[in-house]
Amino acid sequence: MSLDKEKIKHVAKLARISVDEAKVDSLTKDLNSIFKFIEQLNELNTDKVEPLTSILNQSLRSRKDEISDGKIREKILKNSPKKNEEFFVVPKVVE
Amino acid sequence: MSNITNRSLNEILESIKSKKISSLELTQAYIKNIENAKKLNAFVTTTFDQALENAKKFDNKPNNEQLLSGIPLAVKDLFCTENVKTTAGSNILNNFIPSYDSTVTKNLWDNGAFLLGKLNCDEFAMGSSNETSFFGNVINPVGNHLVPGGSSGGSSSALAADLTPATIGTDTGGSIRQPASFTGTVGLKPTYGLCSRWGIVAFASSLDQAGPMTKTVTDCAIMLEAMSGFDEKDSTSINKKKETYSKDLKDNIKGLKIGIPKEYRVDNMPKEIDELWEKGKKILKNLGAQLVDISLPHTKYALPTYYIVAPAEASSNLARYDGVRYGYRSQKGKDLIEMYENTRSEGFGDEVKRRILIGTYVLSSGYYDAYYLKAQKVRQLIKKDFDDSFMKVDAILTPSTPSSAFKIGEKTNDPVSMYLNDIFTVPVNLAGLPALSLPAGLDKQGHPLGLQLIGKALDEQKILNIGYAIEKNCGYKNKIKKWWS
Fold it and tell me: pLDDT class for B268, splitting at 50, 70, 90?
């Protein structure tokens, strides 16, 4: 299958990336060549194969439900591009 | 002491422990080299003042019982370092200063090392040539027109140019082994789960592993010992007893069975790569190992599988860069959604955006089964190929890469040709296995070529031993001239 420009704009919307109109053509070309390469997998019949969901022969550990960290608001807010004393600040979302 | 910086880590450690050189003198020697090597563009950040202070601290109260006593180390800028900017080679993290260290770097510091600086890499480790970094290309010390490999290109370049005695990288599809091969250095991708992923900027979580990059196999064993170990904070970390790789290193490989997979002889492979492989086989045979022809029939499907799995995981992992909690935020946009879209568009480079779009598409409604589920099934087949082979052999020998270092700009316009450079390294990540790349020869232009040893899960010691034996017998000598200083 091939990806057209509209499809790519839709996927970019889903990924929350604005795409420069001038770059859509070259992006479409690149992505189509990559998908052509990926679609080699269709040569293989995998009907009876179980998908591999974990490479480890162990299930994920669960930890005790205990608080082991906290009271580090300052550290957490330190790298925020916009904040006040207690919160991350974002553009207005409700009118 | 003259030229301490071109010695191996092991030799440097001996000089420190026998007081032939102080940690301060050593650190000063590396700082001088780094200042003279700006042309290589290997560093994103240097931490010289902090390093000098740590060296003095060590000299005042030396503890020589540690694996890395008094050693300054530069690390890939994908590892979070406390109070030192960590960029992942991206504009979107250009102002990010972690308040914590990654587990792996903390392990290094706990073993006596200290930070010298942060090394350039492909943006979010997505690349095979270090050309996708926001901070510009890194140059290969082997030649000023050559890429150092990627994504750990700053690491390989700095190591080969004597700017750090050893270093660490991360390997999602070959990002340690391919740059090691391109620069004539040793690189190891450990078994998935051996080194903690905590505090490493995530790319594809089911594939990412941190590992050592060093000048010799002995150094590689020392570094792996220092950085590995169980970590509660990584849910996929393997809980097992710590190994003593360096103490247990031995070059007797008599009787070991070494698999030679026929699928690794690919079309258009340069004759020199084939000759290098033959040379490796001959060395192993002469040392009493037994060569066994094996088949890994799904090898050609590894790269297409990888280019579904890795972008899918990346698109999820990179969803966190929203311009709210940390990192770059665009000033453009009239509402929250536009702020997100502009932040991510301005903050990420082209290759990263390309992979996020691939990942988003293959996970999107209606396409998941055709791509992602299909890839997970093929991944199972690739893993089974290795499982079957390891019933018959102790390790597998292949070339590390299908060519020596390529030229800057040579593959930037054709993503698929760039991806094909990882053809021999990617299958290992999909199967979660350990693999070592070590320099074993030069092509006719004098550029280094690497051999790869693939081991069973958690069998790092064996591939280190085989690598050690090859290293002693292959007569490799690098021909790097310091043209940059």
Answer: confident
pLDDT on residue B195: 98
- pLDDT given at position B2: 61
In a 10 Å sphere around its CB, with 0-12 CB exposed, 13-18 middle and 19+ buried, how is residue B83 labelled? exposed
Is the Cβ of A64 closer than 8 Å to some Cβ of chain B? no
**How far, in Å, are B41, B224, B264 from residue B114 at the CA level?**
21, 16, 40
Contact call for B206 and A55, based on CB within 8 A:
yes
Interstrand relation of B257-261 and B209-214 (parallel, antiparallel or unpaired) = unpaired
- Is residue A80 in some structural domain? no
pLDDT of amino acid B323 = 96
Strand ranges for B26-148 from DSSP E: 43-46, 72-76, 114-119
Res B1 pLDDT > 60 = no
Query: From the CB of residue B350, how many other CB atoms can be counted at a distance below 10 Å?
Result: 15
User: Residue A25 and residue A29: Cα distance in Å, rounded?
Assistant: 6
Per-residue tokens: A28: 């479409």
Dump strand ranges (E) for B382-447: 395-399, 435-442
Determine the structural domain holding residue A29 and report its residue range: 5-43
Asked whether the beta carbons of residue B377 and residue A50 sit closer than 8 angstroms, the reply is yes
- Residue A26: inside a domain: yes
Q: pLDDT at residue B465 above 90? A: yes
CA nearest to B363 within chain A: A11
pLDDT digits (tens, 9 = 90+) for B320-340: 999 999 999 999 988 999 999
- The answer, yes or no, to whether residue A61 has pLDDT greater than 90, is no
| CB spacing of B357 vs A63 below 8 angstroms | no
Choose, out of A38, A60, A66, the residue to mutate when testing the contact with B (most B CBs < 10 Å).
Answer: A38
Residues 16-35 of A with CB under 8 A from B: 16-20, 27, 30-31, 33-35
Residue A20 lies in a domain: yes
Q: Is residue A67 part of a domain?
A: no
Question: Which residues of B are identified as catalytic?
Answer: 76, 151, 175
Report which of B302, B298, B246, B253 is spatially closest to residue B280, judged by C-alpha positions. Answer: B253
Distances from the Cα of B475 to the Cα of B216, B246, B279, B399, angstroms = 13, 22, 11, 17
The ipTM estimated for the assembled molecules is 0.95
Chain A residue with Cα closest to B299: A41
Q: Under an 8 A CB cutoff, do B354 and A49 touch?
A: no
Residue in A16, A34, A40 nearest the CB of B344 = A16
CA distance to partner chain B, nearest, from residue A44 (Å): 8
Of A44, A82, A90, the CB nearest to B301: A44
Q: State the nearest Cα–Cα gap between B221 and chain A, in angstroms.
A: 23
Task: Give the count of domains, chain A.
Answer: 1
In the predicted structure, residue B35 carries a pLDDT above the cut 90: yes
